[in-house]
Amino acid sequence: MEKRGLLIVLSGPSGVGKGTVRQAIFEKENLSHELVYSISATTRTCRDGEQDGRDYFFKTRQEFEQMIKHGQMLEYAEYVGNYYGTPIDYVEEMLSKGKDVFLEIEVNGAIQVRSRMPEGIFIFLTPPDLQELERRLIGRGTDDTPVIEKRIQKAKEELALMKHYDYAVVNDDVDTAVDKIMSIIHSEHLKVTRVLDEWNRG
Ligand code: 5GP
């Protein structure tokens, strides 16, 4: 039987830099384990520079609700008025082929994944402090003021959820955060319980 890959969930408050850290991870040339990114579905509109099927699968609300109804989502959440979710088939297929699957999702979704796949590795990316987070959300310039305010309020609530995770990584510097995440993944592969599990699978 082929060994199963690891499910790695990167989460944390909006604006903490999850997207940047995730991109930096996938730009690395020599990832020692095969790591694939799970592209999410969303109902939010496509931003400049984004591409359907690369950054997200952009869906209408009706299409998204059909996917939920047909059990096609590993998790989903409504976030600032839009749905975001992880299509389950891709995740299952890659894990069963022995590939590590990387999710970059908001906190409510991560908690759902935790209850469905508790064997996953849950990493919480934290901002150095809340002012820095506000500065980043405003600096990003992709949203207008009411949306930014909603996101900051949400971020405060989200920070309180860190206790549900296995690891906390401060994003004060992208390269350092990437190195920390990669060492978490390497160490998880070396865990005796996982190594024994692989031996037992033959
Ligand atoms: P954005 O609109 O800035 O691309 O994403 C907004 C938030 O949704 C971010 O915190 C991002 O990590 C999260 N997100 C992206 N994809 C998913 C997903 O599939 N499920 C959940 N629950 N959150 C997601």
Overview of this protein structure:
This protein is of the alpha/beta class. The chain is 45% helix and 20% strand. The protein is built from eight helices and nine strands. The protein has helices at 18-27, 61-69, 88-96, 107-116, 130-140, 145-159, 174-189, 192-201; strands at residues 7-11, 35-37, 41-42, 57-58, 73-79, 82-87, 100-104, 121-126, 167-170. The chain is globular. The model has no long low-confidence stretch (mean pLDDT 91). Guanosine-5'-monophosphate binds at residues 14, 18, 40, 44, 75, 77, 79, 84-86, 104-106, 109.
How are the strands ordered across the major sheet? 2-7-1-8-9
Distance between the termini: 7 Å
* Radius of gyration computed on alpha carbons: 17 Å
Number of strands: 9
Strand content bin: 15-25%
User: Can you write the helix and strand succession as a string?
Assistant: EHEEEHEEHEHEHHEHH
Bound molecules: guanosine-5'-monophosphate
Sum up the overall morphology in one term.
globular
Structural class of the helices, strands and pairings? alpha/beta
